[in-house]
Amino acid sequence: SKMAALPVLMSTIAALLASKDGVEITLWPNGAPNETKGWPGPEKTEGNDGTGCGATHDQPCTHVYNVSNPILTMFKPEHPTGAAIVIAPGGGYHDLAYGKEGLDVAAMYNGLGITAFVLKYRVPARPSLDGLPKWWAPLQDAQRAIGIVRSKASEYGVNPSKIGFTGFSAGGHLTAHISTTYETRIYPRVDTSDDTSCRPDFSLLMYPWMLLENNNRSQPFNIAAELNITQDHPVSFFCQNEDDTTAPVEGSIGYYLTIKAKNGPMSSLHVYNKGGHGFALCQGKTPPLNEVCDWPSQAKLFLEDHEIIPRS
């Protein structure tokens, strides 16, 4: 009957709307751990990060401020491959470049058949706490996010052994942090999502910030103390410009060589000569574009080479 078809139609419409707008997943149902009540104040979103964002490439790019209720937003691709990726926007652990390095990047990965989860992690940086590593709040959120995606893999339609993590700038530091700090959760167990591994199966570090102790480019092997690289590091992709004045390129190079020195997996290092910091998907830029703007095609080949997505 017509009435019987209605719920199916409604659920199909709901799924289509959800895939366009994303499905929000609350990381901490009972509130995030180690928080100070009332700080840092109400969350706000402002379209003040330039233009060129959105599906039409002409929308304002958004910044998100004052996150104390972290959210993971799932965007499903039209043609899923089973691979998934958690995306951490940058913003110096002060705010989040949510449009340019979050939502738009999710759309790019959806185009490769990858289910994308944009991580709205806690900012600004919380004060240091005894017994917790530097920048502990984003790390708690990243550990929790991967655990949720892996534990609910069948529900989300993803392969639990093809869950990656990527981040830009401060999100690149967070990618390194979750790629080196996954053996033990740095928060008390919440539910079964915390019983599964939170190690990323692959990592893409985009102009990663603060990989070196004190960001000191003159000591490229003095990796930041909180990043303990071992041979079990996920297979990784690095992308950075030599003229980056915010995050020295020596960070990516030194980190890459340290993985190699520890007999870690073979990774891909892409160093370009110009394009500065924070280029993301080169939104708002007009041709002729820098060489670095082609990084998504290199990332696609990296993912194919490691059999995370099928060759197309």
Overall description:
The chain is an alpha/beta fold and 312 residues long. The protein has helices at 2-21, 99-111, 136-151, 153-156, 170-180, 249-261, 295-305, and strands spanning 23-26, 44-46, 51-53, 59-60, 63-65, 71-75, 84-88, 115-120, 163-168, 202-206, 235-241, 268-272. It is globular. The chain starts with a helix and ends in a 7-residue tail after the last helix.
Q: How far apart, in Å, are the first and last alpha carbons?
A: 42 Å
Shape: globular
- The Rg value, from CA coordinates, equals 19 Å
**What is the N-to-C succession of helices and strands?**
HEEEEEEEHEHHEHEEHEH
SS content category: alpha/beta
The pLDDT mean sits at 94
pLDDT < 50 stretches: 11-19
The percent range for helix content is 25-40%
Largest sheet: 8 strands, mixed
Number of strands: 12
Strand content: 15-25%
Widest sheet: strand ordering: 1-6-8-7-9-10-11-12
Quick structural overview:
Helix content is 28%, strand content 17%. With 312 residues, the protein is an alpha/beta fold. The strands form three sheets. The chain has an eight-stranded mixed β-sheet with strand order 1-6-8-7-9-10-11-12, sandwiched between helices. Strands 2-5 form a two-stranded antiparallel ribbon. It has a two-stranded antiparallel sheet with strand order 3-4.
Which keywords apply here?
12 strands, alpha/beta, 7 helices, 17% strand, eight-stranded mixed sheet, 312 residues, two-stranded antiparallel sheet
What is the strand and helix layout of this fold?
Elements: H1 2-21, E1 23-26, E2 44-46, E3 51-53, E4 59-60, E5 63-65, E6 71-75, E7 84-88, H2 99-111, E8 115-120, H3 136-151, H4 153-156, E9 163-168, H5 170-180, E10 202-206, E11 235-241, H6 249-261, E12 268-272, H7 295-305
Parallel strand pairs: 7-8, 7-9, 9-10, 10-11, 11-12
Antiparallel strand pairs: 1-6, 2-5, 3-4, 6-8
